[in-house]
Amino acid sequence: MSAGRCLAEGLSFPEGPVVYDDGSVVVSEMAAGRITRVRPDGVTETVAETGGGPNGVARLSDGRLVVCQNGGSTFGLGPWPYDFVGCATLFRPVGPPDHPVTPALQLIEAGGEVSTLCTVFTALSGSTLPLMRPSDICVDGDGGFYVTDGGVTRGRNRGMTGLLYGTVDGGLREIVYPLEMPNGVALSPDGALLYVAETRTRRVWEFALDGPGVVSRARGLATVPSGGPLNVGGADGLCVDATGRILVATLGTGGVTVFAPTGELLGTIPADDPMTTNVAVSTDGETLFMTLASSGRLVTVRNWRVHLGAAQAPP
Q: Which Pfam families does the annotation name (predicted)?
């Protein structure tokens, strides 16, 4: 990709970028079971060993990190998106883990100590259910956080999941159900709107909030285009910049798809890895960070709006 610069490589299926004021970026390494800091010069250091499969990461106001622990997977080269002639062969999850851990939210202290925050949630029905495969997370201005649970597939059966809200001391409760493989989640700059990406449908939902974890309205905001040689696509992690633009890490075509707050398709930032799993923007809004998971890279794009190319409307 001509617009980007590789900040770090050799990462083990990176996800969940969190950008700090000093320019460093914390990412999860899902295939290695650890959280890693990438310095502005590309030097990496281990923040914490979580085990399992750490996915989305968010930073609380006190500096601690909350991690979506999905339980782990076995990684290797496998066909994607499906096993047929013409598919790609990528480094990706290919089966259940050899050493599974309980799906959970994990809390990482400043010194790197890891503890389990919760393993269950209260469903809309009032029953207590286990987390299946926590995917992504974002923190609000009230000290709480929104969490997506991507669910699991067993044979021909798939567990339906939704959107959760919680606090460090108050546990998790379900606020939207059902969603189809919910993934990326982020708030608008004023905290009044919440965006959730569904991987398989390529849909980005917009939820209006009346308060912390209180949804008052919902609408399908946009659909991420498919593309590439197989004309496939998927919506993975997402973030929102200071002007309200929604940036969605796009599977299949690779790179990032950008929408206006109205849902208008503004364009794309391409990448050469079809498994572009997540995206974040620097605190000054000028630099975009992409995790390219199958190739194990963290890529930066300076002045990313200049490189925003035209995109086709979704089919």
A: SGL (PF08450)
Q: Which residues contact 39 (CB under 8 A, 6 or more apart)?
A: 23, 24, 45
List the structure tokens of 13: 């299926």
Alpha carbons 271 and 3: distance in angstroms, whole number: 9
Percentages helix, strand, coil for the chain, rounded to the nearest 5?
0, 55, 45
pLDDT at 312 over 80: no
The pairs formed by 213-219 with CB atoms below 8 angstroms and a separation of 24 or more are: 213/144, 213/146, 213/165, 213/166, 213/173, 213/175, 214/175, 215/175, 215/176, 218/176
Structure tokens at 313: 């409307």
Distance CA 290, CA 281 (A): 9
Q: What kind of architecture, by CATH, is found in domain 5-307?
A: 6 Propeller (2.120)
| Cα→Cα distances 19→37, 80, 219, 231, 254, Å | 10, 29, 29, 32, 21
| DSSP summary character for residue 309 | B
What's the alpha-carbon Rg for the chain, to the nearest Å? Answer: 18
- Can you tell me the mean pLDDT for 94-118? 96
Tokens 């995109």 correspond to 311
Record the pTM: 0.96
| 3-class secondary-structure state, position 304 | helix
Please, what is the Cα angle at 50 between 119 and 140, to 5 degrees?
A: 60
Give the residue among 33, 66, 64 at the shortest CA–CA distance from 49: 33
Write down the pLDDT at residue 289. Answer: 98
Q: What is the pLDDT of residue 315?
A: 46
Beta-strand pair 74-80/145-149 = unpaired
Instruction: Tell me which DSSP letter residue 232 carries.
Output: B
Residue with tokens 């969605």: 248
